[in-house]
Amino acid sequence: MTSSSDIRGLHRLQAQTIHGVLWLQSHFPASEWDALLHDQACFSEDCLDHLLSDALKAGLFIQAPVTA
């Protein structure tokens, strides 16, 4: 799942399943895992597009953000 952050133009990536968590862990160093797993990591749209594209290729389901 993705959501907007407090900073304009940045988005958070939230793993909703164990498969999502494992996928995140395979793409980032161990030093980043706490921030990723606690929804504290923020990504630009370009970076997020790349990550989500890769996740889709890996067979993960991507839930789009809900707009208010």
Layout: helices, strands, pairs:
Elements (H helix, E strand, L loop, with lengths): L1 E3 L5 E4 L4 H10 L5 H5 L4 E3 H13 L11
Antiparallel strand pairs: 1-2, 2-3
Question: Which runs of at least 5 residues are low in confidence (pLDDT < 50)?
Answer: none
- Measured between the Cα atoms of the first and last residue, the distance is 15 Å
Largest sheet: 3 strands, antiparallel
Class by helix and strand content? alpha+beta
Helix proportion range: 40-55%
How is the largest sheet built, in terms of strand order?
Answer: 1-2-3
Beta-strand content estimate = 5-15%
Could you explain the architecture of this structure?
The chain is α+β, with helices and mostly antiparallel strands and 68 residues long. Helix content is 41%, strand content 15%. A 3-stranded antiparallel beta sheet has the order 1-2-3. The longest helix is centred in the C-terminal third of the chain and has 13 residues, at 45-57. It is globular. The mean pLDDT is 82.
Compose a concise summary of this entry.
This protein is α+β, with helices and mostly antiparallel strands. It is built from three helices and three strands; from the N terminus they run ββααβα.
Key words describing this protein structure:
41% helix; single chain; 3 helices; 15% strand; alpha+beta; 68 residues; three-stranded antiparallel sheet
